[in-house]
Amino acid sequence: MEPSVPADRSARPQSVLFLCGQNVVRSVMAAALARHLFGKSIYIASAGVIAGEADPFVAAAMDEIGLDVSRHRPRSLEELEEYEGLSFDLAISLSPDAHHLALEATRTNALTVEYWPTPDPTLETGNREQRLAAYRQVREDLEQRIRARFKPGR
């Protein structure tokens, strides 16, 4: 299946929703990076298919680059929709289950969806350093994608 992309990728959206499975790893990292890079010029939120439990490796990986995600509270897309609505210009799904959910949301919301398949670092095995390296790689990959997609000045 081809990823869904906006008709005009040169236009920077005003609001972006990052989605992953549990709103504890990939979407948290992406949202924190986007907020750091673009401040209040883009409204950023994140959610998951379900709300999971905070992951200490995420906090460690983000802390390494000076971003504090310790106050993040995981929430499902259903919770987000209930409290904030889904009035986003763009949803970026980072996992297959999140992509399916985002596409379902387009049935009742004017929402553009992009799919950025992103590995799940929680699947990494090994010692602490090996596991943390997987989180760092996801963090770096997401930062590159975010910088490329939402270039300053767009």
From TrEMBL:
Which parts of the sequence belong to the Phosphotyrosine protein phosphatase I domain?
Answer: 14-152
Give the UniProt keywords, A-Z. Answer: Arsenical resistance
For this protein, the record's SUPFAM superfamilies field holds: Phosphotyrosine protein phosphatases I
Keyword Aminoacyl-tRNA synthetase listed? The answer is: no
Give the UniProt record's GO annotations in the biological process aspect.
response to arsenic-containing substance
Highest taxon listed in the record's lineage:
Bacteria
The keyword Hydrolase is assigned to this record: no
Per its UniProt record, what Gene3D superfamilies does this chain match? 3.40.50.2300
The UniProt entry, under PANTHER family, shows: ARSENATE REDUCTASE (PTHR43428)
Supply the name of the protein. Answer: Low molecular weight phosphotyrosine protein phosphatase
